[in-house]
Amino acid sequence: MNGQTRANIKAGLEVDIVLKQDQRTGKLTRGVVKDILTNSPNHPHGIKVRLTSGQVGRVKNIITPS
After folding, report:
1. The pTM is what?
2. pLDDT tens digits, residue range 43-66?
3. What would be one Pfam family of this protein (predicted)?
4. Do 1 and 15 form a contact (C-beta atoms < 8 A)?
5. Could you tell me if 26 and 64 are in contact, meaning their C-beta atoms sit under 8 angstroms apart?
6. Would you say 2 and 42 are in contact if contact means Cβ atoms under 8 Å apart?
7. What's the burial of 18, exposed, middle or buried (CB within 10 Å: 0-12/13-18/19+)?
8. pLDDT of amino acid 42
9. In terms of C-beta density within 10 A (0-12 exposed, 13-18 middle, 19 or more buried), how is residue 15 classed?
């Protein structure tokens, strides 16, 4: 699923995000969404979220529940 559309992202979903300090390398961090921080319905670089761990980054992949 697409991490650029806010409607696709809900609290409790498992996602891969890129942290601010990892934007150059593209290193992904996996976690569970706690809060959605982007207000606009779409964002070209991914919707910004806060994970339950407290890390903040932009969603690159939504891990679909198996």
Report:
1. 0.91
2. 999 999 999 999 999 999 999 765
3. DUF2196
4. no
5. no
6. no
7. buried
8. 96
9. buried
Residue 8 φ then ψ, to 5°: -80, -15
CATH class label, 6-63: mainly beta
- What per-residue confidence (pLDDT) applies to 47? 97
Cα-flanking dihedrals φ and ψ of residue 33, to 5°?
-65, 130
As beta bridge partners, residue 57 has 19, 49
Handedness of CA 30, 36, 40, 41 (dihedral sign): positive
> How many other CB atoms are there within 10 angstroms of residue 55's CB atom?
14
Dihedral of alpha carbons 11, 18, 43, 49, sign: positive
